[in-house]
Each structure stands twice: as structure tokens, then as C-alpha cells.
Amino acid sequence: MKLGIVGLPNVGKSTLFNAITKAGADIANYPFCTIEPNVGIVPVPDERLDKLAEMYEPLKVTPATVEFVDIAGLVRGASKGEGLGNKFLSHIREVDAIVHVVRCFEDSNIVHVDGSIGPARDIETINLELIFADLEMLEKRLDKTRKMMKSGDKKYMSEIELYERIKTGLENGTPVRSMPFTDDETAMVDQLFLLTSKPVLYAANVSEENIQGTDNRFVDELMQLAGEEGSEVLVICAKIEEEIAQLEDEERLLFLDELGLEESGLNRLIKAGYKLLGLMSFLTAGQPEVRAWTIIKGTKAPQAAGKIHSDFEKGFIRAEIVAYDDLIRCGSYQAAREKGLVRSEGKEYVMQDGDVTLFRFNV
Fold first, then answer.
1. Distance between CA atoms of 260 and 269, rounded to whole angstroms?
2. Strand partners, 40
3. In DSSP terms, which residues pair with 280 in a beta bridge?
4. Can you name the residues that pair with 282 across neighbouring β-strands?
5. Burial zone of 104 (CB within 10 Å; 0-12 exposed, 13-18 middle, 19+ buried)
6. Bridge partners, residue 304, by sequence
7. How many CB atoms sit inside 10 A of residue 299's CB?
8. For the chain, first and last CA: distance in Å?
9. Contact at 8 Å (CB) between 8 and 73?
10. Segment 75-104, tens digit of pLDDT
11. pLDDT at 161 over 50
12. DSSP per-residue codes, 281-330
């Protein structure tokens, strides 16, 4: 999972990035201090791995990971190259989903590029630049497809009709992710790699005094806008997350308890990202290694095996699976097998979150 952190300059993107990756990205109170994207790989918190490690005592425990990309602050005119915009937009094109950080706090010491706080206006600024970039790309695709249609192949007609419909929607300010498509059309849209087709999670960056985001008119404004487009909002305080990141595990739990938070913003962000992209994890466990593997919900057993190694998919015979909860309840794999809880599944089996799996294959 690759998440791109975007937003206007000085909304707290790099502070949030530092907090969740401990990568030490440069932070400065002026636009474009982030020119090349900072990248951080973060382990996905999964307490199931700890329980399996206690059971198997492996040499190695490997969690699933999320890649966060801190993309420089976009400004008006980015789609035309303002503020190195074209370069920044190309970085967005490479991520799976967008975490759009929106400033929801006032602080006279931190400059806002538009002089005041306004979530709806800020989001519109970013969305318009992404829409303009998509329109430019779509025009090029339309020109190319129209030329190809002159060959007489009617298949290009349906493509042109789809592109024209997308173009009209974009011109009306509608991002591609909010447009309805059939399954066949979705497959065609995916090949366009449009920026506004990427799912978005809004991160409302609030002040340290308002970490729950309650009675915050900026958060309310963001919630309403996100609700209208079917997106989710995660209330987070980048400064607090930065403090949490510096603490050891036990201190972190105490600090979160003092703040009245059940878990860190990082954990909530990763869970929201998994939900946004329809992801889940299956597990493998043994003496050499206990490991979590990220797959898309609906993935069948052979394709899940291919995540480990392509040979596993090519030579797939069967998957021996026990549900994580059943395994923990039984206390050992052998006990679960004796109780008939270890199942042998074939090529059509759809993997479930938390399946502890052993793949049988032959190449």
C-alpha cells in the first residue's frame, strides 16, 4: 500500500510524515521546502503477529508495511507548472491512494498561503489542479483515439464516448472517483491513471488543544464536504503524533491514555487506508518466520500464494488454513488440526482476513 500525503503548503504534511515514519523530513515555514518526495516505510501494527510469535518462537517476525510519500505542497497553477507543480503531480500519479491533509486550526505564527483557514476552499484548490491535470491528459488520449478510429475499428467509439463523459464530469468539477462506471468501464478508466480516480482520505489536522476535533467549525466544514463526495475524515493532530513517535511503547500507551485516545493517529490512518483500498492480511507462521501479507479482499488462494513467490502460484496444489482465532484458542497448530479446524482449500477458495496459511505447491 502506497499512500501519498498531499495538501497546500504549511498545512502540516511534513510534520505528520515525520511523526508516522520517524524519517526526519525537512520542515520549514515556507512553501516548497519539500521538492523531492520523502518516502517512509512503516510497519502495519498487528497484535496477531505478537501472539503467533509467542506460540512459534520464530527467528524473525515480519509485519506488512505501508509506504508513505510526502508530496510537496500544491498551489494554484500547479497543473500549469506553478511551484514545480507538474513534477509534484507526477509523484501523486504513482501512489495507490491520497491522504489529503487539511489545516483545521488557527495559528498566527504559521503562514497560510491564502491568508486564512478555509477547508472547503483549500480542498477545491487541490481538486481543481488535479482535475486540470486530468483534463489535459484526457484531451491527449481523446486525440489519439479519434485518429485510431479512422481505421474503421468500431471499438474505439465506445472508448471515445467514455472519455467524453469523463471530460464533461471533470469540467463540471466532479472527480473521476465520484463518477459511476460499469465493471468494463472501470477497467478502461484504470488504464488512464487519472489523478482524480484515486481514492482520498481527508486528514483534519487540528491543534494540540483540540485533539478530538470537537466544536471545531473547520472540522465540521470538512466533514460536510467529505460526506457529499463519499470520502472519510480522520481527525489527527500532527504535533501530538510527532510527540507520540518519540516515546517508547509503554510511555506511548500512558500518553495516549492521558489524552483520552485509544490508539495513535498512525494506527487509525493505516486502518483507514486498508479500508479505503479494500485490503486485508493473511498470515504465515513457523519456526523460521511469522509474517503478515497484504492482499486485496476477494483474492483467491493461488494468487495469495503468488504474493509469497510466483512458483507458489504456478504450482499451487492446495492451502492448509486455520483461522487465527481458532489457532489461538486451541493453543497450537497440532491441537487445531486434531479438532478438525485446519482446512484444506483449493484454487477457488477466497482468502479471509487472519487466515494462518500453509501453501502446498509443486513446480
1. 17
2. 68
3. 295
4. 293
5. buried
6. none
7. 20
8. 29
9. yes
10. 555 455 544 445 557 778 889 999 999 999
11. yes
12. EEEE-SSSEEEEEEEETT-BHHHHHHHH-HHHHHTEEEEEEEEHHHHHHH
